[in-house]
Every structure is written in C-alpha cells, then in structure tokens.
Amino acid sequence: MGSLVNSLKRFLGNKNTVTIIGVLVGVVVLYFGYQWRVNQAVSPQSVPYAKQEITSRTKITEEMVGSIEIPKSMVSSSDNLITASSEVINKYVTFGAIIPANSLFYREMLVDQDKMPDSAFADIPDGYTIYSLSVDLHSTYGNSIYPDNYIDLYIKAMEDDNKIIFGKFIESIKVLAVKDAQGQHVFETATESRQPAELLFAVPNNMYSLLMKAGYVTTGNIEIIPVPRNASFSANPGDTQVSSDYIQEFILNQSVALPEEDDENVETIPNGGDTNNQNSSSKSSKTSSKSSKANSASSTTNSSSSKK
Known about the structure:
By secondary structure, this protein is an alpha+beta fold.
C-alpha cells in the first residue's frame, strides 16, 4: 500500500505529468462547455406563425395562427418577436402592414381594436371636412385613382331647357383613401381584388357645403365626376378652389342659404395654408358683406324718403 502511494506521489510530482493532466482537463471542460452552449443555442422553441397572409386592419383568429419550432438564438436576438399564441389571437394587424404567409409575428405589427387608426381621418386641418364621393370601377378609370393622387371634380347637369352643363367645378383635391363597399382600403393588399366604391378627401367647409348641396339637388340630374391629375401636378399641387362661378350659382340657385352662410364668396384655400388666417379672412368677408347689405338698405330707405 505504501509503495502505491509513493508511486502516485512520484507520478504527480512529475511536472510533465501535471502539465499533460491539466491540458486534458482543460480540453474536456472546453468540449463539454461548447456542447452545452451549442445545445442552448440550437435547442428549438415553439412560436406562433401566420398560416396565411393577413392584411392590414384584419382581426387575427385562431384559425390563422400555427405553431413552429425555431432555434432559441432567434428568439433571444429579437426583442419584438412574439412567442405565445395568446399574444396574437384577437389582435389586429396595424394599418399599412401586411403579415405574409409563414411569417412570424412581431409586436409592432399588432394592435388592440381600440387603437386601430384610419389614415383617412388623420391630420385633417381645421376648417376642413371629409367628403365621401361614390365611385365605381369605371369612374375611377379602371381603379387608377390612388391615395395621395390629386383630382379635379367635374359637374354634369341639365338646364331647364334640357341643355347639358359640363365643366370643372373644384380643382386640386388630394385623395385620402379609396375604399370598397365594405369600408376596406382597396390598395392595402395585393392578393385580394377589391372594387372601389368611394373616394375620401377633405375640402374646406364651404366647398363641402357646395358638394353636399349638389348631391341633394333633385333637379338638373347633377353628377359629380372625379378626373385624375398627372404625376407632375400631384408633386406640385395648386390651390384647392372653385373653378366655375356658373356651376356654383347653378347649385346655389336650387338651394336655400342659411343666414350664417356666405356661399357667394367661396374662398380659395391654398394646400397646406394657414387655416386660422383663412377663417379670419372669411369672417371679415362676411362682416363686409353684411355692412354692404346694411348700407344698401339704408340708401334705399333714404331714396324712398326723398321721393316722398
């Protein structure tokens, strides 16, 4: 027994032996440590994925979501990746986003229903109102009017003597959205064919009043026709303004102006202009108009008194 211990002491006392043992231990530690790290990186983790293309503003249902295993390294390297189906189902795809088939889900692409925006109603300036113009495939030139395009509105109508009125009514209007009969944006998906049913755009309040009156007038068979402008005009649009005083008067003569309205002086509204100054100008114009009417009435009275 003593000789065995002495032999072991001599063996361990040899510097070369200790060096070899240290190298071997180090290699073993490195090997198993590397294997552990590799297993941690490549070991699969189950995450939800889209079984079909999911378009903007669509509610995600359980039937649209599948499960797939991916390496944990992909999960740890992305803070926005969703790893649980419960965080996906009953959410909505945010406006302007499309989740392709077989794609993973990311947090910035999903929102709750109460946070769903509609870009057609975002950032409308003060003094403007959204107008919805009914259209179809033919009147949009084969579905060729897109959001952010500029259009002119033409009027087709019939005079009392059955003569046709046709001309440009309002020019330089920016299209905010093109929607189908279900209220879905026509161009938000490339995989589904949608037919245009309405153009949405914002116009100054006084022009909105004119358009609504034109739509409600039953005589004259008034028809509002959108006509697209070319790309160079859309890049440098002009002012939104009434183009024809004749058509404006034709509409106003078939409607009643409320006391607070001053439709006879429809303003030109520069695109991107200061609406506060425009409103002030409108009020000044109304005040001047009222003063002129008062002076006119006073002159008439004086004239009558003089004759007597």
